Amino acid sequence: MMIVTFVIFTITFQDAAELIFLSLRNILTNQLGWLLIIVANIILVSSIIIAVSPLGKIRLGGDDRRPTYSYGAWFSMLFAAGMGIGLLFYGVAEPLAHFQSSITGTIEINGIRTDFAPLAGAGGNRAEAQNLAMAATFFHWALHPWSIYAMMALSFALTSFNLNLPLTVRSIFYPIFGEKIWGWPGDMLDVLAIFATMFGLATSLGLGASQTASGIEHLLGIPNTTGLQLILIVFITGLATCSVVLGLDKGVKRLSEINLGLASLLLLFILFLGPTYYLITVLLESIWAYVIHLPALSTPLGRDDQLFSTNWTAFYLSWWISWSPFVGIFIARISIGRTVREFMTCVLLAPTLGCMVWMTVFGGSAIALNANYPQIGLAEVPLQLFVMLEQLPLTELTTIVSIFLSIVFFVTSSDSGSMVIDSLASNGNLKTPVPQRIFWCGLGGAVAAALVLGGGLVALQAMAISTGLTFAVVLLLGGAATIYNLIKIHSANKQSTD
Questions:
Q1: How many degrees, rounded to 5, is the angle at CA 224 between CA 221 and CA 226?
Q2: Residue-range domains of the chain with CATH
Q3: What number of CA atoms fall less than 13 Å from residue 433's CA on the CB side?
Q4: 270 versus 123: which is more confidently predicted?
Q5: Nearest Cα residue to 320 out of 477, 143, 446, 109
């Protein structure tokens, strides 16, 4: 009811909603952005400790359980669900924006400004600026976000498959609240998870509609209007509903594998027909730059680059945290049978490397091509990918593939997210009635449409940040409860073997 009321208010009072969203985003990022960085740092360090400790020997689902999916299917679903449309939307735009910022000091693009004071030092040095740009991009797409997903997924997997509790957020907190999780404290936790997932999902759906509409405008000349974006949201939500009805194996799994295959082909096309040697060099140099600058990027207080840490980092971390219930449950469901060490290592490293390669190929190509084709950097963020592809061979074909990828990323995010929300609203039930799944999928599309009408990108960012900040505390406490559960299970296993 609260979500439906939000949709009605946003659509009815669009101008007022836009002002509210803008103020909300600015207040939250300026005042509480440091909290998000602290939480993300703690989660990353805890994830690494769990992976290398004796706790890593525990098998999700019990000692006799074996993995349901092959590594290929597992990785494709991890990748598609965890990052989705953001890879296409920001793959060109973010590295290019940071590159221009590190050369000039500050830059403003679509209302988002960046400065690199603590990373300082590019000052017109193109190679250094490129490395700084990629390091900053990796910070938002590599270890920190995937540790958030890994910890949340591990929390769900342990409580559900090892301790036989429902696949819900409340179950994670059994060590803290005990039997009270079946009362109002547990209800509040699950409701908060539903809100976080819904608005995190709506952010992705809104970005996907904007990206797809920009591609259609670039290819066919149809103006990228709010009306076109709304039509796309309705159409793609319908496709996602069909996938939800088919279920995890027939719908989500197949779409994820198609998505990964197409994305890989597009990446290889740009890699080999673009500046190949340059991109390979940039990847190696950027990984090292990421390692070198990670302490500065991870520092929560005393930052001189407030524009960067608030407008970029706070938004991203909020988005990932708001997605963590959805992605966490989804990853938990597809990871039964893996050991904790295998699980944490693969969920941390495999998608991280994939994101690094993706951002280097797309962002590095944009940086290289922008020197001769400055229209890439001058284009609106959703359009920059297509303007870059215009400078490479087979433009129409790659544009069509990119539009199709946007749609499939859109669908995989919507269907998997809706399935998780449905499960949370049903006390962890994995086999819910089809009409119920359809309801949640449709409601997700309605929230995305309302946010597009009520302020576009600013509204999407505001709701992701507000729900992410709120859920950050839940994530931190849930991580502590998970470590307690791991120690408890490890002790029980050790006693049984002695």
A1: 150
A2: 2-497 (1.20.1740)
A3: 3
A4: 270
A5: 143
- How far apart CA 271 and CA 249 sit, in angstroms, is 32
How far CA 217 is from CA of 229, 386, 403, in Å, comes to 11, 10, 11
- Given a contact cutoff of 8 angstroms between Cβ atoms, the answer to whether 10 and 460 are in contact is no
Residues in the chain: 498
Q: What is the pTM of this model?
A: 0.85
Mean pLDDT taken over the chain: 79
Q: What is the 3-state secondary structure (H, E, C) of the chain?
A: CHHHHHHHHHHHCHHHHHHHHHHHHHHHHHHHHHHHHHHHHHHHHHHHHHHHCHHHHCECCCCCCCCCCCHHHHHHHHHHHHCCHHHHHHCCHHHHHHHHHHHHCEEEECCEEEECHHHCCCCCCHHHHHHHHHHHHHHHHCHHHHHHHHHHHHHHHHHHHHCCCCCCHHHHCHHHHHHHHHCHHHHHHHHHHHHHHHHHHHHHHHHHHHHHHHHHHHHHCCCCCHHHHHHHHHHHHHHHHHHHHHCHHHHHHHHHHHHHHHHHHHHHHHHHHCCHHHHHHHHHHHHHHHHHHHHHHHCCCCCCCHHHHHHHHHHHHHHHHHHHHHHHHHHHHHCCCCEHHHHHHHHHHHHHHHHHHHHHHHHHHHHHHHCCCCHHHHCCHHHHHHHHHCCCCCHHHHHHHHHHHHHHHHHHHHHHHHHHHHHHCCCCCCCCCHHHHHHHHHHHHHHHHHHHHCCCHHHHHHHHHHHHHHHHHHHHHHHHHHHHHHHHHHHHHHHHHC
Each residue's pLDDT tens digit, 14-41: 555 555 655 656 666 666 778 889 999 9
**What angle do helix axes 184-220 and 434-453 make, rounded to 10 degrees?**
60
Instruction: Give bridge partners of residue 107 from the DSSP assignment.
Output: 114
Higher pLDDT, 79 or 110: 79
Q: For residues 257-275, b (16+ Cβ closer than 10 Å) or e, as one string? A: bbbbebbeebbebbbeebb
